[in-house]
Design a protein that fits this description.
The protein is of the alpha+beta class. It is 30% helix and 11% strand. Strand 1 and strand 2 form a beta hairpin. Helix 2 packs across helix 3. The longest helix has 21 residues. The two termini are 32 Å apart.
């Protein structure tokens, strides 16, 4: 797994959680979505943040602070066991997000490298050995549903100046 991740820049882990757990997480995400909508506009309280676009929730940050199912999943030992070969046993989560992607493949973000957003850059040196981003696809994940796309081995060419307004 580590070798594939280092070669390709990503790894896909299937069946880490059971279908019933995915259903529970989907329900939690639905509750987060409803809460975001209840604000009627983008909303921030501390690190808790809902971003709305044209009246629709597009993203929420740190909802695990007040959603029990998301809080439990955030510290699930299966995730720590999966990541420990990459990072060791002393890990810190720096962000926690839920994204709702637009149908038809148009999402919130153009192609980008997440390392561009870690500031100050000096605090995030050596990202390849000290940082792993994880994601969980709750709904069907494909181009028409707005799913993620990865560019294999793009992490090996260094920082790329990619258009962020697509």
């Amino acid at each position: 797994l580590v070798a594939a991740y280092r070669r390709d820049g990503f790894a896909i882990i299937r069946r880490l959680v059971s279908p019933s757990e995915v259903a529970e997480l989907a329900s939690a995400c639905d509750a987060v979505h409803a809460e975001g909508l209840s604000h009627g506009k983008s909303y921030r309280h501390g690190n808790l943040h809902y971003r709305l676009d044209a009246g629709e929730v597009r993203m929420a940050q740190w909802t695990s602070w007040h959603n029990a199912a998301l809080a439990d999943f955030r510290i699930d030992p299966r995730i720590a066991r999966l990541l420990s070969p990459f990072l060791g046993d002393d890990m810190k989560q720096i962000i926690n997000q839920v994204h709702w992607k637009k149908p038809g493949g148009r999402g919130d973000f153009a192609f980008h490298q997440d390392s561009r957003f870690r500031k100050p850059a000096a605090a995030y040196r050596n990202l390849g050995d000290s940082y792993v981003q994880t994601g969980l696809a709750i709904d069907p994940h494909n181009p028409m549903s707005g799913g993620l796309q990865f560019l294999p081995a793009s992490h090996l060419v260094g920082d790329l100046s990619l258009a962020l307004d697509d």
